[in-house]
UniProtKB/TrEMBL annotation, chains A, B, C, D:
PROSITE patterns on file: DHDPS_2
Protein name: Dihydrodipicolinate synthase family protein
Signal sequence residues: none
Highest taxon of the lineage: Bacteria
InterPro entries: Aldolase_TIM (IPR013785), DapA-like (IPR002220), Schiff_base-form_aldolases_AS (IPR020625)
Recorded family membership: Belongs to the DapA family.
Lineage: Bacteria, Bacillati, Actinomycetota, Actinomycetes, Kitasatosporales
Keywords from the UniProt entry: Lyase, Schiff base
Length: 311, 311, 311, 311
């Protein structure tokens, strides 16, 4: 399908269900897609950080995008991450995911390399110049170790290099600068500003954001769809209640023991455990070398679900 | 060939010459290998950071390892980087480079992901458990954003998980702790401790390091071979003179204007410019999105070569 | 006066006007206080980062707090920073500012030292145990290089160690966690959650924050007072318009040439230039070694004022 | 006394013994000075990081410098740290310590503030312009969160702003660049390059460093004096044996449980425990909020002493 301009609404970063021996579980993946679509989401983002793209092999990435694009069949837009270290490798992923049906690609600044802001700009220009579909910038300093500042994003937007921004930086001041800049500049149009936050969605939408890409949206797509609707209707009271319920649910990302595992193991482990407990996916395993949640930790995920009315 | 235990000597991280349209220039690559072998190096390390592995596509990486392993034909050991974000992707590279003839693989901690020390250890154990060749840990905090501490490295050495360490952290205190630990522990043997420094090689060898992996060794392999020999002979006076000459030459990494490009563009650009000026490779281009050196900057590289007696 | 429980409203971090020879300009300081009080603020925060506390000598700090506390005479609460590296030095400042009339103190985690979270908690407990006035935690990772996480803040709130939080981290997710935690826990009451942001005040208040500590409030106290009032009245449409006007004004912090000066020189230089242009203070000089704005940069500050209807 | 030009030899950063109620223990301090002087050191550095300067109040700092300068009475040069956030505060300390008899001051780049390299240079120029004694730059990125690069240090050396560098960065490549630059430039003379490392002293001296400032020198001044002498005599074999003995002893810095305390608590706690166990100081307490070593941890310090032949 053609990408809406701008892309709006709830676009969850889709988890990648795995089998016990760490292969992509395509049955669970299609069930997850159905769960999201029925939950009222407006688009799908596969092969991002919440999808464990950093772990998936190229073959597994291909299975994911083919499965999702094939299953969705153009009902709603599918964004795909092209997550890799630098331009030529990113372009390989762009080619692969667009051949498989991605309607847009999501690209970070180079990482691992020591990169100058001028090189970051050059990277996005080169990628966009050779991509057959719109390019969204993915701002994720915790992974990439550099920040996309508002000025650069707006410059690339005005050049037509970027179609949107997925901001997972957690820095709302810079985010708002992009929102206001995208609206205020005559040379920018149709640019989509999306927040990756789970817990400040009402705030982002109140500021003028176009949409949200919440990892927790895998677990409770109806919740985020409702939240989005309330915000669009200007019903800030109900929006806040819904958002605060989701804030409570989000507490699950810290069930994992920080002395025993990293933040990804805990957060992605919790999302997958929740999807498993809700009967959406068949197995909650995460990719290696992440550490699995203990049974006690999974039980605590269940309590978060129960507390949010989801079990 | 079988990997020496421990691996010792000068093992330069081999630059990847590119054509003007950014493909691997295999003719230049084999000329570079001849230049290094004739220069007296003891091994080769391909597909590391100095090889621009972060930029090279999988197909290009394959061309590099096939070209080098084929050309070397077992005369000396070839290490290959398996640089990627997390375990499953790293294992794909391990498979690819060992099928093409690598005698050992070089692996970093996971990056892009948020990884706990326990997960870093698990990563190396999983990779080593499935690698048909010895695994060397690559400590490069500037790229990976975490540090391999001495205790972890020695634990993995004692388990037989790691065959060696390439330390590019620049932190000599931790480096010495590994050197002393590897020598002092009964449960560690044949472990190779290699410094990635260009400018403190005499110091590292005086401390007991097994070898050196200097990017500048591409430009002046004879210099590093001499330096290594002087150190092994205990001729610290001549070693220091040679090392200081190489320190002067190393100044070339800063020819690039820091207002216009990042550190990689400047350093790798300088190494390639030097190889081009010395007639070893046909084209000094670096991978995208790195910024090329200006002609004035290339000229300054030439002055460094002249100053070190290499032009 | 007694500190309100919780402290609410607009509490600007008061700039410290200096004479051309870098002494505290007490006449300008009292004029600035009048400007703020007449502008409708609810409290004052002196000797914080926007006050250049990191630069002011102990004698200068004393002049500031004595001048302000004396001039205010209990009309509204005065918070004072006790900004220093570790507990004993912080306690010296606590003693000094409370003797001079501060109604509350604002304290960061230790910095310069390498401090464990357990030591951060111990620091706040020790300071609060010996402070005659309520202690507010100051979360400013850009200066302190560690983050106060929500769990620690709430634990210290429940113990009665902290009376409030001034959050200048820019991380709205963690901020909201504190807001919800402070409201949701039976063992926490009267705890004041204040945002240090200039540009997301409407969002913070919509989430349930108690007040705001905006550096830009020096320049336009009426604006922030209006914004606060609209938010409290639930008039989110007018609040957003006012906030967006202030976002535009805030652009002044980037007038300084980033190739020639740091972020403090530019932002504090702009605030002082604006106060000078508005006729509030006699001299826009900042403390050493900050770099002064050029006349062209000061002119651009004037344009920001004009654009916001303040000249 | 007049500061030697350049300052050379062993210049330990003197620990600050405290009483059980956290006041400066001047009797222990003079005993520690005697222990160091009898151990053969060439100078003393008080009020640095190993002296817990970040914790000591101004009054305590004054007691330390007065006690040490008075006790030493010009027998050997006394450097004093003037550790604070920015220029005016640093200048207050410079005044204080030089009035009390310091022969030189040691100054870091500004911290807590967000400072541009141009402002760092300005800071050192302003401090040196108003200091009655020579100024040494203190490079300690782990505390200050910025690095003094070789180019800046050498520029300030050539201007006569800096008399020397105490490099505690652990980055030997940059350190060597300063050493070679200070020797190679006609416009730099008498500049003293000192390493703050405990474990790479032989390497630093072999490279041409002028002296060493090892925290562990408090515990074993004779060891460092011997090590320095062997290096100066070119007896690298004995130097390495001595250095490796000291590397073993240095392991004490990690006795503290990293789950319970920070690196300072562990390292400074171990140095003080060792001085206590050796009978030099009366009480091993560290300043607040550092966490004390447990009795088991102190026992392990004793084992390190025994292992190095010091008990």
């Amino acid at each position: 399908m053609t990408m809406p301009t701008p892309l709006t609404g709830v676009v969850p970063p889709v988890c990648t269900p795995l089998t016990p021996d760490h292969e992509v579980d395509t049955s669970s993946l299609t069930r997850l897609i159905d769960h999201l679509v029925e939950g009222g989401v407006d688009g799908l983002f596969v092969l991002g950080s919440s999808s464990e793209a950093a772990y998936l092999t190229d073959a597994q990435r291909r299975v994911v995008i083919e499965t999702v694009a094939g299953h969705v069949g153009g009902q709603l837009p599918v964004l795909a991450g092209a997550i890799d270290m630098a331009t030529p490798r990113v372009l390989d992923h762009v080619r692969s995911v667009t051949e498989a049906g991605a309607d847009g690609v999501v690209v970070t600044a180079p990482f691992y390399t020591r990169t100058h802001p001028a090189e970051v700009a050059r990277h996005f220009r080169l990628v966009a110049g050779r991509s057959p579909v719109p390019v969204f910038a993915y701002d994720l300093p915790v992974a990439v170790h550099s920040k996309l500042d508002a000025e650069l994003v707006l410059e690339l937007a005005s050049e037509g290099v970027l179609a949107g921004l997925k901001d997972s930086s957690g820095e709302e001041g810079n985010f708002r600068e992009v929102v206001l800049g995208a609206r205020g500049r005559a040379d920018v149009s149709g640019f989509s500003v999306l927040t990756g936050s789970e817990t400040t969605v009402d705030a982002a939408l109140a500021m003028g954001a176009d949409g949200v890409v919440p990892g927790l949206g895998n677990v409770d797509p109806e919740g985020y769809a409702r939240l989005y609707r309330y915000c669009r209707e200007g019903d800030w009271v109900r929006a806040r209640v819904e958002q605060e319920r989701l804030c409570g649910l989000f507490g699950m990302v810290r069930v994992g023991d920080a002395g025993r595992m990293g933040g990804s193991s805990s957060a992605l482990g919790a999302f997958k455990a929740a999807l498993y407990l809700r009967g959406v996916i068949s197995c909650p395993v995460t990719a290696e070398p992440q550490v699995p949640l203990s049974s006690g930790e999974v039980e605590r995920v269940g309590k978060f679900l129960a507390g949010a009315g989801l079990l």
